[in-house]
Specification:
By secondary structure, the chain is mainly α. The protein is 52% helix and 7% strand. InterPro entries: K_chnl_dom, VG_K_chnl.
């Protein structure tokens, strides 16, 4: 987690500084902290629109930063979702009939509707 936050911080500082150099005060990037604010808004995909690049190089850098932002959001989301899906709490126990092997997706069935045998749980 620390490496992740340090990497994002490094990206924000570098891109914010580059945008200040590329765009300059005449295009709304009046100082490096303001440019870093723009980088945070862009990488988080919020995009307020109060500051936007005007030069082709600035727009290219903004596009790259947006794609990086999607990756920064998507990768941890996928990792967390995968971990939650593998959690034992999320497994649905299905019951099957030991006599006729009929599966029952309903969790509240206690007896087989086909042969009347008591159902056993399975994972």
């Amino acid at each position: 987690m620390t490496v992740f936050l340090l990497t994002i911080s490094f990206i924000i500082i570098i891109v914010g500084s580059l945008m200040y150099i590329i765009e300059g005060p005449e295009n709304g990037f009046v100082n490096i902290p303001e440019s870093m604010y723009w980088a945070v808004v862009t990488v988080s995909t919020v995009g307020y629109g109060d500051i936007s690049p005007q030069t082709p190089l600035g727009k290219l850098l903004a596009g790259v930063l947006m794609i990086v932002g999607y990756g920064i959001i998507a990768v941890p989301t996928g990792i967390i979702s995968h971990g939650l899906a593998k959690s034992p709490k999320n497994h649905i126990k299905l019951k099957n009939c030991l006599r006729c092997d009929l599966d029952f997706p309903r969790h509240d069935d206690k007896f087989c509707s086909k042969c009347g045998t008591l159902l056993a749980s399975k994972k």
